[in-house]
From TrEMBL:
Species, as recorded: Urochloa decumbens
Chain positions of WD repeats: 297-338
Official protein name in the record: Transducin/WD40 repeat-like superfamily protein
UniProt-listed PROSITE patterns: WD_REPEATS_1, WD_REPEATS_2, WD_REPEATS_REGION
SMART domains per record: WD40 (SM00320)
Key words, A-Z: Repeat, WD repeat
Amino acid sequence: MDLVDDLELLDEYDELEFDGFGVAAGDTSTQNKNKYDTTSAVEYRNGKDMQGIPWERLNYGRDDYRGQRLNGYRNYESLSRSHELLDSECKQVDKKGTFYDFCFNTRLAKSTVVHFQLRDLVWATSKHDVYMSQNYSVMHWSSLLQRGEEVLNVVDHVFPKQKARGARPLFRMQICSMAVRNNLMVAGGFRGELVCKYIDQPGVSFCTNITDDDDNITNAVDVYESPNGSTRVMAANNDSVVRVFDTERFSLLSHFTFPWSVNNTSVSPDGKLVAVLGDSSGCLIADLQSGKEIASLRGHLDYSFSSAWHPDGRVLATGNQDTTCRLWDVRNLSQSFAVLKGRIGAVRGLKFSSDGRFLAMAEAADFVHVYDSHADYSKEQEIDIFGEIAGVSFSPDAEALFVGVADRTYGSLIEFSRRHRYDYLNSYL
């Protein structure tokens, strides 16, 4: 649901004020930058809405609309199961934490969601550099320069720079999954495509359809390091297969078949284990060398679409359409040691900060939760916004948190900065 329709904006607000929002990211000319394009930390502290929503011009206030959203939003379920006992399992948390402060919101950078269940579409490579998908493109946003540019376009024919074995040119690929690590950008397509590109080099290094069936979606992609230090690309598909490619010749190294459509995978920090989630209420942990199942995780009530490993490799987080995230200790996988509850819908995005201190949990819409692992996940910061969430990403140094909002009018990139006890020193820098 687009908020521009849901909010019933008054007068000619949407025609007059948002006329320039369709400009390409990077067009920062004065005529396309009005008072609603951006929100700074100073403006926010002085009372401006974080997303620039003009509540003073609407028939109801923010709190009233929040109540309407909570009552009216319908979470998508693949399996209709009773949630009667779920609330009793969920951890009681203190929601008064503030770990990241609002820093900036820009509508010159916005993500689009191609498949409503796939929301890992925002990746930060530094506290100033963020990559996000926009239909047939990947855009780079520099928060330092306040400027964006297109770095990958797959609206027309795409050819790899070098002919790798099995590579096939692509045409008009809609991006529904992506990952950026180690200078390598990987994008998955709505018809089973896979594209790999080094962000500091021109052209596409590798592209192909990983299946022959156009109905098979590349649901998730990832870049990771194997135990021997080499870089690998993993692609999960709804043909029930997980494929692993090397990044020297982009040859297929291995493929593992599972009993259901694979919606998400994540590799443990040591590169030895992989979490496999899909169209099942159960999740698997498998040996990455052989693909053999090591453990089956039970507790979720619906299909799962997100997962993340703590940097120490001991904790796995899984996100599910039953509106919960479960935390698992790999030393005892018989049951989850904590269940974290969302407010409005499916948990479709999970990320740990690089230092392991924080876990960001993104719902399908409106809420991002940041938990403090040092407090046994019992302290939380709840980020309350409006709109479908395209993805969340910590910067590699954990100093910034980015949230992508996908909406026709209020779509934006929101930046938060980590709070430190010595923040007062910033005034002297």
